[in-house]
Design a protein that fits this description.
This protein is an alpha+beta fold and 77 residues long. It is built from two helices and four strands. The protein has one domain. This is Halobacterial output domain-containing protein.
Length: 77
Amino acid sequence: MYELTWRYGDEHVTVPLRDLTPDGLLDAAANADMDYSIFSDLFLVRLLYSLTYQVLTHGRAEVSVDGVGELVVRRAA
């Protein structure tokens, strides 16, 4: 189990992320009220690749998305 934190401006929201799969990421994004229009197939694949690689090598992942904010993923405590 993981946690997804979406930071945008001075605000942030943290929601559970059950696994690093497209379905898990889309569920977490919906729970965080993220804009679904950015989640094209290509965006989703690239985002998951980046998040998975960083989590597996560093235990934590952070990705900046222009106009959307930052996504931070880490293992849940």
